[in-house]
Amino acid sequence: MALLTRAQIDAIDDRTWEDIPVPEWGGEVRLLGLSGTERDAYQASMVRMGSQGNVAGVNLVDNSARLLARCIVGEDFERLYTDKDVRDLGKKNGAVIRRLYKDAQRISGLAKESVEDAAGNSEPARSGPSTSA
């Protein structure tokens, strides 16, 4: 396989999206997976910084709605909700928000460990086979 050039990489549209049925809302929503920059910004939004510049904790307030606000787009792939609209989105049916949140995580390559990663609390992944019995 040949090495790609920057121009080839830049020309690739590799963002994934899915239209997800939401019967409770009477239609579908389009979820667009986060870009790398958007993913980092979302994870950074979960971190509460202390007065000394250290990590003071994890901010889970409207966490699901914050991700969905970044992922729900219209037919033109433009966001339907801004960061200022997160609270409005968070007021919707919690079961629907949770279901869409899981889809947005999957489409964006976010695992449930993303909260721990953002706080710097995750353990490094193992590589290779385990030697424990």
Structure overview:
With 133 residues, the protein is α+β, with helices and mostly antiparallel strands. It contains six helices and five strands; from the N terminus they run αββαββαβααα. The chain has helices at 6-11, 36-44, 63-71, 86-90, 94-108, 114-119; strands at residues 17-22, 27-32, 47-49, 55-58, 72-73. The radius of gyration is 18 Å and the shape is flat.
What are the SSEs and their pairings?
Layout: H1 6-11, E1 17-22, E2 27-32, H2 36-44, E3 47-49, E4 55-58, H3 63-71, E5 72-73, H4 86-90, H5 94-108, H6 114-119
Antiparallel strand pairs: 1-2, 2-5, 3-4
Helix pairs in contact: 3-5
Number of strands: 5
Low-confidence stretches: 121-133
Overall form: flat
**Mean pLDDT level:** 86
- Estimate nothing, just give the exact number of structural domains: 1
> Could you name the CATH class?
Alpha Beta
Task: Describe the largest sheet.
Answer: 3 strands, antiparallel
Question: What's the CATH topology label?
Answer: rbstp2171
Percent in strands = 15-25%
Q: Secondary-structure element sequence?
A: HEEHEEHEHHH
CATH H-level name... which superfamily?
A: Phage tail assembly chaperone gp13-like
Spatial arrangement of strands, main beta sheet = 1-2-5
Which architecture would the CATH scheme give at its second level? Answer: 2-Layer Sandwich
